[in-house]
Design the sequence.
């Protein structure tokens, strides 16, 4: 399962540097490409607003 970014995202950029496979793209709310995401959780660990979680 890929991780997803909720509407709580503040587009701070912290998660982009943590992603080892560059699956995160910038925008008003960042997005994670589920085809690239390896489900490592690195992005969720560093998100200051806890906007990233495993897809349900």
Sequence:
């Amino acid at each position: 399962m890929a991780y997803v970014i909720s509407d709580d995202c503040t587009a701070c950029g912290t998660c982009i540097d943590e992603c080892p496979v560059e699956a995160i793209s910038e925008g008003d709310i960042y997005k994670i490409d589920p085809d690239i995401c390896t489900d490592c959780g690195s992005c969720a660990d560093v998100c200051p607003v806890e906007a990233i979680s495993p897809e349900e």
Residues 14-18 form the longest helix (5 residues).
